[in-house]
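Q: What residues go here?
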């Protein structure tokens, strides 16, 4: 049995290998953003228009998808894309057809696309 208690091997230092790089982390919604999105979602569920949702955290963007029924394609997608933060805006609401309904730098302004307007009904 050999022992290298005082030899060359004790002078070597461990080499750390990162398992996850910072740029490999997915884009996510933070707590404030989720609170704003879920508040709008709650209103629409209580109105009977929305029934289900899904959240996807991808490497380049985060997506909150809204469904009328779980077996359908999403009616709307609320996306957070950090690459667009200096251009059109980090947040966008996209319809099922792919049409961008609203885009901007502030989530609360983008979510106003779902605000209902009151109208007078004449009989």
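A:
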């Amino acid at each position: 049995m050999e022992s290298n208690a005082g030899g060359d091997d004790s002078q070597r230092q461990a080499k750390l290998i990162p398992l996850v790089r910072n740029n490999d982390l997915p884009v996510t919604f933070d707590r404030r953003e989720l609170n704003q999105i879920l508040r709008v979602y709650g209103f629409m569920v209580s109105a009977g228009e929305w029934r289900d949702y899904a959240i996807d955290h991808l490497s380049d963007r985060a997506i909150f998808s809204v469904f009328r029924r779980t077996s359908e394609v999403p009616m709307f997608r609320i996306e957070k894309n950090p690459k667009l933060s200096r251009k059109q805006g980090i947040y966008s609401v996209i319809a099922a057809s792919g049409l961008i309904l609203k885009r901007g730098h502030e989530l609360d302004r983008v979510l106003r696309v779902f605000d209902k307007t009151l109208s007078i009904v004449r009989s």
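A: Context that may help when evaluating the design: The mean pLDDT is 82. The helical segments are 31-46, 107-110.
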